[in-house]
UniProtKB/TrEMBL annotation:
One matching Pfam family: OMP_b-brl_2
Name the record gives this protein: PorT family protein
Domain called Outer membrane protein beta-barrel: residue spans: 25-203
InterPro entries, per database record: Beta-barrel_OMP_2
Length: 233
């Protein structure tokens, strides 16, 4: 419901005349927008990141807890037309988010809580598969692979959780899947979309002590993300 609210608020903020876009015989806007070989644009949006943990031994009721927050996305779009229904897209962007981890078994908050602030530079290469255009709107599916540079990873830090530093790997490899609708307005194309991002590489840098109470039982740590983007082309 939170994401639907953000999506609706974004549509209202932009002021899209949604009813006009779905008329049976609307006046067609930007009729040649998708015929160029190359298109450019930018996006703004929101994100929420989570972690998926794999454990060496069953943790029972002592799972690591993740407190999530809303972050933001901003980036550029480069699109190459393949045919009427397929486009190749490159969407480099800056993504910021913060997560708080709660580790069981500690009595002191300074030991139990780790705040993970992440600033990602994301490099996704995506295929956009669109339906046929209906008047001034066109639905699509999008998916592909991406790699992200985590500027707040602490990968090379000598300190670990025993000193209050949670470490992650600098480079993350993901796959992305989503859907959206292109709206052809009078002067530009506006696109709200929803996308999931799933890391396929292990991001954890274990503590120096193999029996660490923080990372000793973690076999793998992978990011899962959820994006709502608003694109202007």
């Amino acid at each position: 419901m939170k994401y639907l609210f953000l999506l609706c608020m974004g549509l209202l903020f932009i002021g899209i005349p949604v009813n006009a876009q779905f008329n049976e015989k609307p006046i067609l806007n930007l009729e040649n927008e998708d015929k160029a070989l190359l298109n450019w644009g930018y996006f703004l949006g929101f994100n929420q990141y989570d972690f998926k943990f794999n454990y060496k031994n069953d943790p029972g009721d002592t799972d690591i807890l993740v407190s999530k927050s809303i972050g933001f996305n901003v980036g550029l779009i480069g699109e190459m037309r393949i045919n009427e229904f397929l486009d190749l897209r490159f969407e480099p962007g800056l993504l910021y988010n913060a997560r708080t981890l709660g580790f069981p078994g500690f009595t002191e908050e300074q030991d139990a809580i780790r705040e993970v602030k992440s600033t990602y530079i994301n490099f996704p290469l995506l295929i956009k598969a669109s339906a046929r255009r209906f008047g001034n709107w066109k639905p699509f599916l999008i998916g592909g692979a991406s790699t992200s540079l985590n500027l707040g990873s602490n990968e090379t830090a000598l300190d670990d959780n025993s000193s209050g530093t949670f470490r992650m790997k600098k480079w993350v490899y993901n796959y992305e899947l989503g859907f959206g609708i292109d709206f052809y307005l009078e002067y530009f194309k506006f696109t709200p979309s929803i996308r999931g991002v799933f890391a396929i590489s292990d991001e954890l840098v274990p503590d120096n002590d193999p029996n660490s109470p923080w990372t000793g039982n973690i076999d793998g740590l992978r990011t899962r993300g959820f994006f709502i983007n608003f694109t202007f082309e």
